[in-house]
Amino acid sequence: MRPEIRAMVTGLPREPGVYRFRDERGRVLYVGRATELRSRVGSYWGELHGRRHLRRMVAAVVRIEAVTCASVHEAAWLERNLLEESLPRWNRTRGGQEVPAYLRLDGRPATPGLRLTHDAGQAVAGVRVFGPYLGGARARLAVGALHRLHPLAYATTALTGAERDLAAQRGVTAADREELVAALVAVLQRDPVAVAAARHKLETVRDRAAGSLAFELAGRVQEELAALAWITAPQQVTTLEPGDYAVQGWSDGWLVSFAVRDGRVRSWSQRRSAQPRPALPEAWAGFAQRNAELAATLARLSA
How far is CA 121 from CA 128, 165, 193, 285, in A? Predict the structure, then answer.
């Protein structure tokens, strides 16, 4: 590993994010995502194992750029959005392998429940849509976890005889519908108290199952815990909120810009700039500033 490359790798944070490699002509060679940027990027200058086809690319890398994200889920979305817009030579897939999913929370008396869908659909009175999330399997497990905790589907006015028995076992009636809807909304809106309470209840179910030697159930609940963590992780680079605007951060002579179109971060650029740009939407302040600082750090280390 060349000294300047080693310096840039060392300068990367141990946080989730997206990285890209450029060659001596400034061309983007590859875009990837990482659970931990420093170790993931550094691995390209190791054995490569199943990625040996990338050796030629690695030899051409002269600059490393990176964006830190608030979660691995956010990094996954940012990588997907960038690759949908532009596919560098060494990337193989435009977008990603995970399937986008949404959760539809139906609070209507006759059809209450939380259901997975792959289309946000049209607005319907009494129905709220959350997401999008990456990974249909994860989202389905999260639905199972939330039904285990807040069985809204049983709080309906249209139960069959067998369903009434199940509802009675869970202690749920139609009168509980609004309370269950509110509990689910709190979790899906990432309220920290609600999320922590949900995790604690699932951990209790898991530990009780393991203590009773019901290892299959314990394993299932552990998967549900991971799925719940995935969908409640902070991420703002892909939302249902419409909007087109630029997000910019400046640090030590470097301007980093992200173009948001229709609620998604679609592009990422950085360049030298003598003056900071105008203020950006407040919700993006932390994201923009920390990534401008990272861009300035990596640029200094590559010199």
Answer: 11, 33, 30, 31
**Closest Cα partner for 152 from 128, 170, 138?**
170
Rounded CA gap, 303 and 292, in Å?
17
* Total count of residues recorded for the chain: 303
Phi, psi of 77 (to 5 degrees): -65, -40
pLDDT tens for 113-149 read 999 999 988 889 999 999 999 999 999 999 999 999 9
For residue 257, the SS3 value is: strand
DSSP 197-237: HHHHHHHHHHHHHHHTT-HHHHHHHHHHHHHHHHHHS---S
Q: How far apart are CA 81 and CA 133, in angstroms?
A: 13
Give, to the nearest 10 degrees, the angle between helix 215-232 and helix 136-149.
110
Asked, as a colleague might, if the bond just before 132 is cis with ω within 30 of 0, I would say yes
pLDDT of residue 48: 67
The kind and range of the H/E element at 155 are none
Tens digits of residue pLDDT in 13-67: 999 999 999 999 999 999 999 999 999 999 999 876 767 778 889 999 999 999 9
Report the sign of the C-alpha dihedral through residues 39, 40, 41, 47, in that order.
Answer: positive
